[in-house]
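Put briefly, the fold is written as integer tokens. The lines below illustrate.
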Amino acid sequence: MTAYSGSRHAAEAFYDGIRVELAPWEIDVSMIEPGFAKTPIIGKLAASFEEAWNRADETVRQMYGGSKFLEAARKEQGRINEMAIPSEWVTLQTVDAIQKVNGAEKARALVGKWHSRLFMRLLDFLPDWFLDWAYKGVMKTMGTIPNNPFLLNDLKQD
């Protein structure tokens, strides 16, 4: 998630800057931020994960909790597939932003189901310590935090 989150924040900062810089020419800039959309990438998520898991060294699999992690990951992938929005929603939001006479209503257009958009807006107001605590809890529940990260030391010695 680090690379993904970093690139999202970089893109947001870029669009914020360019929106301000182009304002004197009355050029509107909007950033469309979709949640998970039903695309081929999401469709191949489970198969790609299974393939990577099967290629992983046994020590790495143990580090993440073995079959417990695998089941949690499968459950999470199912949840992602269920909450993914139709890809057409993103296209419609983009066209809507382009066709507005005075630009989009907001500089950031979150595209997704209403509860996902509300949740993302609320995150902006929460303190970092709370977000860190919540993310760690979610990651632990999903099994994406290693149960025993020090097993890697055994792998390095081999």
Summary: DSSP finds nine helices and two strands in the chain. The mean pLDDT is 79. The radius of gyration is 20 Å.
